[in-house]
Amino acid sequence: MAPFRARAARPHAVPQPRRTLALLVPGLVLALCGFGAAQVVAAAAAPGVRPALGTPAGLEPARDYHTYANTHEFRVQHLDLALDVDFEAKRLSGAVDLRLERLAAEADRVVLDTNGLVIRRAWLVDGEAVQPLEFRLDDGIPVLGRPLVLTLPESVRGRSPLTVRISYQTTPQAQGLQWLTPAQTAGKRHPFLFSQSQSIYARTWIPLQDTPQVRYTYTARITTPKALRAVMGAVNDAAAPLDGDFAFEMPQPIPSYLMAIAVGELEFRATGPRSGVYAEPSVVERAAREFVDTERMIEAGERLFGPYRWGRYDILVLPPSFPYGGMENPRLTFATPTILAGDRSLVALIAHELAHSWSGNLVTNASWRDFWLNEGFTVFAESKIQGELYGAARRAQEDALGAQSLVRELARLAPRDQVLAVDLRERGPEEGFTPIPYEKGRFFLNWLESRAGEERFMAWLRGYFDHFAFRSLHTEQFLEYLEATLVARSEGRIRMDEVREWVYGPGLPQGAVLATSDAFERVDAERGRFLAGTPAAALATQGWTTQQWQHFLDGMPRTLARAQLGELDAAFGFTRSDNAEIEFSWFRNVIRNRYEPAYARLEQYLVGIGRRKLIKPLYEDLMATGAENAAFARRVYALARPGYHPIAQTSIDAVVK
Ligand code: BES
Ligand code: ZN
Question: Residues with Cβ within 6 A of ligand 1?
Answer without folding.
Answer: 198-199, 324-328, 349, 352-353, 356, 375, 433, 438, 613
